Every structure is written in structure tokens, then in C-alpha cells.
């Protein structure tokens, strides 16, 4: 079993023939991901990267049996692309696009929730990878080696850093989920952590957050309330960020006392999570935690 994507996932690429879609689809195919086609309006009936191109997601699903979509569509059209994927019956929608207007995302998320049974990862995320099986995203696949540590992260770069450390520490990754850094995303930290908590092939979890919002405290309290079933190592980026200034991601802005890195780290520790001060400590700390030496 794996989380969200695996060797049996049938993946389509929305925005398939654009420059970003082409590059990353090529990387995904090279990795071994089962990319079964792509969607670019008005280019249906052609072929790209050795895969068929369709005009609509509905047609792509009917012809290929796709169940996962990755979106490389410009921000102005990305929310419509999400809703089109949901309409077509796609169960996992991974949106790489950054900077989708908040109002558009509010509409798309409400629509997605009304349909039920769909998982949206992102927007503004690096995607999801189950090492050795499927890479549906923009992450460097060579960093990730198969193992039993799950990763949930708001930061793409720190996802890769954590994976590299976990692998170099002699462990490996079950599934890594980059949830995205925009103000409105489909799968908050708690929901992604819950997926990994329920995955029998995941023994422990790395949870990487950042300033702004309440995703990490909500996840931490859920972890405690559910009995701390698996060890969690946590890190919060933005420890030196001043209040009121956005740092990198659109959602990374301190709006109140509970949004700071210090406040989040305190809550996480109180909930039984092993919190590291620096991302450089993630790998060695996970080894110690698994050995029972917190």
C-alpha cells in the first residue's frame, strides 16, 4: 500500500504541451510514472512525448482510465482546470501552479468539497512521490529512496532536504507529500499526516511547516488526540521572520501570536512531537527517535 500515488496510478497532465508541462511530464515518464496522456485544448488527437493529447479531461479519462491528474495550467485558468478534473472523475488532483487568485481557489475548493471523494494536493506545491513507483510532481526523483518514513511539507525545497537526510541516515521514504504554500490549499497538514498515520508501510513521519496559519497546531493536536500512534519529527521554517511580513509563500505571514514559529513549535512539543531547531537535524533526530532516544 502507498499514499495517493503508486505504480498503478494512471496519470494525465493538464497543460501537457506547454513548456513546464512538457519538461516535468518528461521527467515523470523517465522516472517510471505511468503517464497515460495529457490535456491541451485544441490539440486533441495529436501526440506529445509519445503519449496521446486530448481536448478535455473527460475525454482523457474515458480513453485512458486516468485516476490522477497533475496541473501545469496558468494561474488565471488553473481553478477551472481543477474543477474540470473533479467533474471528469479524477480522484487525486495535484496542482503545481502558483499564484491562483484566492477567490478562484475558494470557488474551486467549495466545488471539490461538494463532490466528495476527491483529494486535491496544492496549489503551489512540488507534488507527491512514492519512491520507486510514481513521481507526480516537480521534485528531483533521485533524492528519494524507498523506505518507511513519510514526509508532509509546506516547503518544496525542505521536502527535498528532509528526504536527502532521511536517506543518508540509512532510512528511506514511503511517500512524500508537498501540500503547498498558498493561503488556500486542498489538503492541510493534518489531513496529509492522517493519510500517513493510516498507511501500514509508514513507520514514522517528518512534518515540516512554516509561519502563518494554523495547519501545524491543528495537526499536532490531532496527533496527540489520536494517541501518538507513530513518532513524528517536526520543523517550522521562518523562526526569525518579523510579524506582518510575507516570507516566500503567500500563506507564510504572521498574522497573530499563534502564527509564529515559536508558538507552533511549543504546541507541537506539548503534543508529543520531537521538534528540531534546524532542518539540518531532521535525519539524525529521526534515527534517535526510532531508536527510542528522544
TrEMBL record:
Q: Where is the CoA-binding domain?
A: 4-100
Q: Which reaction does it catalyse?
A: GTP + succinate + CoA = succinyl-CoA + GDP + phosphate; succinate + ATP + CoA = succinyl-CoA + ADP + phosphate
> Known InterPro entries for this protein?
Cit_synth/succinyl-CoA_lig_AS (IPR017440), Citrt_syn/SCS-alpha_CS (IPR033847), CoA-bd (IPR003781), CoA_lig_alpha (IPR005810), NAD(P)-bd_dom_sf (IPR036291), SUCC_ACL_C (IPR005811), Succinyl-CoA_synth-like (IPR016102)
Alphabetic keyword roster: Ligase, Nucleotide-binding, Tricarboxylic acid cycle
Q: Where does CoA bind?
A: 17-20, 43, 96-98
Q: Please list the residues that make up the active site.
A: 249 (tele-phosphohistidine intermediate)
Q: Write down the EC number.
A: 6.2.1.5
Binding-site residues, substrate: 160
A GO BP term here is: tricarboxylic acid cycle
Q: Does the keyword Oxidoreductase apply?
A: no
What pathway is this protein said to act in by its record? Answer: Carbohydrate metabolism; tricarboxylic acid cycle; succinate from succinyl-CoA (ligase route): step 1/1
Highest taxon listed in the record's lineage: Bacteria
- List the PANTHER family: SUCCINATE--COA LIGASE [ADP_GDP-FORMING] SUBUNIT ALPHA, MITOCHONDRIAL, SUCCINYL-COA LIGASE SUBUNIT ALPHA
Q: How does it assemble?
A: Heterotetramer of two alpha and two beta subunits.
The UniProt family comment states:
Belongs to the succinate/malate CoA ligase alpha subunit family.
- Protein name listed in UniProt: Succinate--CoA ligase [ADP-forming] subunit alpha
Q: What organism is recorded for this protein? A: Chryseolinea serpens
* Gene name in the database record: sucD
Amino acid at each position: 500500500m502507498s499514499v495517493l500515488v503508486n505504480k498503478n496510478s494512471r496519470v494525465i497532465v493538464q497543460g501537457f504541451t506547454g513548456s513546464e508541462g512538457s519538461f516535468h511530464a518528461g521527467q515523470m515518464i523517465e522516472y517510471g510514472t505511468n503517464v497515460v496522456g495529457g490535456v491541451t485544448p485544441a490539440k486533441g488527437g495529436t501526440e506529445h512525448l509519445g503519449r496521446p493529447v486530448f481536448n478535455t479531461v473527460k475525454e482523457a479519462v474515458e480513453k485512458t482510465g486516468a485516476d490522477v491528474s497533475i496541473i501545469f495550467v496558468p494561474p488565471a485558468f488553473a481553478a477551472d482546470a481543477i474543477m474540470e478534473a473533479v467533474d471528469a472523475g479524477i480522484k487525486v488532483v495535484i496542482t503545481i501552479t502558483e499564484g491562483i487568485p484566492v477567490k478562484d481557489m475558494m470557488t474551486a475548493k467549495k466545488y471539490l468539497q461538494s463532490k466528495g471523494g476527491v483529494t486535491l494536493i496544492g496549489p503551489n506545491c512540488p507534488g507527491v512521490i512514492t519512491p520507486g513507483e510514481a513521481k507526480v510532481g516537480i521534485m528531483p526523483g533521485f533524492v528519494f529512496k524507498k523506505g518507511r518514513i513519510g514526509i508532509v511539507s509546506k516547503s518544496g525545497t525542505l521536502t527535498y532536504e528532509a528526504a536527502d537526510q532521511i536517506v543518508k541516515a540509512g532510512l528511506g521514504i514511503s511517500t512524500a507529500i508537498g501540500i503547498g504554500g498558498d493561503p488556500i490549499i486542498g489538503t492541510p497538514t493534518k489531513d496529509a499526516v492522517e493519510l500517513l498515520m493510516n498507511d501500514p508501510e509508514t513507520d514514522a513521519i517528518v512534518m515540516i511547516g512554516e509561519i502563518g496559519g494554523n495547519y501545524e497546531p491543528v495537526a499536532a493536536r490531532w496527533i496527540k488526540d489520536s494517541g501518538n500512534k507513530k513518532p513524528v519529527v517536526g520543523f517550522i521554517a521562518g523562526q526569525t521572520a518579523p510579524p506582518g511580513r510575507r516570507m516566500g509563500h503567500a500563506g507564510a505571514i504572521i498574522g497573530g501570536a499563534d502564527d509564529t514559529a515559536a508558538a507552533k513549535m511549543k504546541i507541537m512539543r506539548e503534543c508529543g512531537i520531537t521538534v528540531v531547531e534546524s532542518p539540518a537535524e531532521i535525519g539524525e533526530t529521526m534515527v534517535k527517535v526510532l531508536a527510542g532516544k528522544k
